């Protein structure tokens, strides 16, 4: 059995020593980029590897052209995955302490590269610790390098030009995953311009979770997304956020709810997101 969306801690625990499984710690803090790596040394799931959002899960930022976390080159990402011990048949589990907000980025990237055997740990590190499950400290344990074959699905993500066309199509839906106050343009703590892409609807990615930080049931998520999207099919929907990270949480939640996302024609990611949209002053902005 492979896990392709969300996995419970009790299902991961007995597989920590399975060489066919790889666990990746994706903890990160946008305001303190080195925090996650330091926290990893203080305690992480046994055998886990660490993925840094800026260094491992994003490519080179080109000022005035890309957003804050552009997609890396395919060959570069494939080499990084192989170095973590992820091969073509490996089951991957990713986690963080933000309800999956950062882990979902790596989940989506693996799906984009044609590797569906990846799941986000439900409840993250907090639930793992609350259950009394083990941690280890210090550096990553070396793993034998694997061979990862990327099969990138270009249709999984949209360019700014494609988003501009999609938002003007009444049969499509564009979803902004940022907090309501950022969507409204009332505040903007990260990017130099406030507001949202005209025509976009708002659903904060945190709405996919319960008050305890676990994913809502698939049935409830399906009901909520159906209310948001109406009759719009998943392949006519795209999600964005500040830089293409937390918007992946919506695509994960939709996969968990049974909509189907990536690959093969599901909901799309606007990879550049708001931070790329605003690099062109001619693109419209709404508040």
Notable characteristics:
single chain, 287 residues, 10 strands, 11 helices, 5-stranded parallel sheet, alpha/beta, 29% helix, 11% strand
Record field, number of beta strands: 10
The helix/strand order is EHEHEHHEHEHEHEHEHEHEH
**Biggest sheet record:** 5 strands, parallel
Give the oligomeric state of the chains in this entry, treating copies of one chain as homo and distinct chains as hetero: single chain
Lateral arrangement of strands in the main beta sheet: 1-5-4-2-3
Q: Would you give an account of this structure?
A:
This protein is α/β, with parallel strands linked by helices. Helix content is 29%, strand content 11%. It has 11 helices and 10 strands. The protein has helices at residues 9-12, 35-42, 53-56, 74-83, 103-112, 124-130, 160-167, 180-184, 218-229, 247-256, 273-277, and strands spanning 6-7, 21-25, 49-50, 91-95, 118-121, 157-158, 173-176, 201-202, 237-240, 268-270. It has a 5-stranded parallel sheet. A 5-stranded parallel sheet has the order 6-10-9-7-8. Strand 9 (237-240), helix 10 and strand 10 (268-270) form a beta-alpha-beta unit. Helix 5 crosses helix 10. The longest helix has 12 residues, at 218-229. The mean pLDDT is 96.
